[in-house]
Amino acid sequence: MRDPAEERLLADLAEGREAAFAELYDRFGRSMYRVAWTMLRSNTDAEDAVQNVFLAILRSRKLLTRVENLRAYLFSIVRNSVLRIASRTRAEQTARQDIATARNSGTKNDDAEWNDWFSKALAALPPDQREVLSLKIDGDLTFAEVADVLRISPNTAASRYRYALEKLRALMKAEQDETRTTAAESR
Questions:
Q1: Exposed e or buried b for every residue in 9-24, given b needs 16+ CB within 10 A?
Q2: CA 102 to chain centre
Q3: What pLDDT tens digit does each residue of the chain (187 aa) get?
Q4: What is the distance between the alpha carbons of residues 177 and 27, in angstroms, rounded to a whole number?
Q5: Which CATH number is correct for 1-86, 3.40.50.2000, 3.30.365.10, 1.10.1740.10, 3.30.930.10?
Q6: Which fold has domain 105-187?
Q7: Domain locations in the chain?
Q8: Which of 103, 149, 177, 178 pairs with 79 at a CA distance of 20 to 30 A?
Q9: What whole-number distance in Å separates Cα of residue 35 and Cα of residue 135?
Q10: pTM score
């Protein structure tokens, strides 16, 4: 049996009452953040994880009256958000390592040649992906901030970023393969 106060909070959330969202944040925001931070070890990523919880609540608020255990429900959303962020972070780290490896592998003779190639690779990206990549890397914005700037959802910002990194990784691999083939043919 649910606590009557929790029952009321869920009903208010389902109706979209702003005060209910504030109460939910006051009651659970700090502990959700601590859990996310403990798992991610990043303030920005932990904040993103908690924000994702509130976006999920907002999107599915009509279904909240079916929730039996609010605390468990919230922390399962936190956990899922943390897992997505951790996966994305690993993919970003791999892409950065790939870029560093390509840059230091001798496949390009100097920084000017590398910068020229990289500029062309960026230009090959679709504009929406290039824009997200630039805001995230050059602007050092979170996905939530990128989403605000571009008026898209944070999930859309994250997926565009991921696709951009995947395309850059594929372009770098193709460039490395071409360079190796050219070097082998010239022997």
A1: bbebbbeeeeebbebb
A2: 24
A3: 578 888 999 999 999 999 999 999 999 999 999 999 989 888 988 999 999 999 999 999 999 889 888 988 999 999 999 988 888 777 777 766 766 665 565 544 566 777 777 778 888 889 899 888 878 876 777 888 888 888 999 899 999 999 998 898 888 888 777 777 776 777 6
A4: 54
A5: 1.10.1740.10
A6: Arc Repressor Mutant, subunit A (1.10.10)
A7: 1-86, 105-187
A8: 149
A9: 27
A10: 0.55
DSSP the chain: ---HHHHHHHHHHHTT-HHHHHHHIIIIIHHHHHHHHHHH--HHHHHHHHHHHHHHHHHTGGGGGG-S-HHHHHHHHHHHHHHHHHHHHHHHHHHHHHHHHHHHTTSSSSHHHHHHHHHHHHHTS-HHHHHHHHHHHTS---HHHHHHHHTS-HHHHHHHHHHHHHHHHHHHHHHHHHHHHHHHHT-
Residue 58 in tokens = 């907002």
* Amino acid symbol at 57: I
Q: Counting every residue, how long is the chain?
A: 187
**What tokens appear for 39 in the block?**
């798992």
Tokens of 173: 């691999």
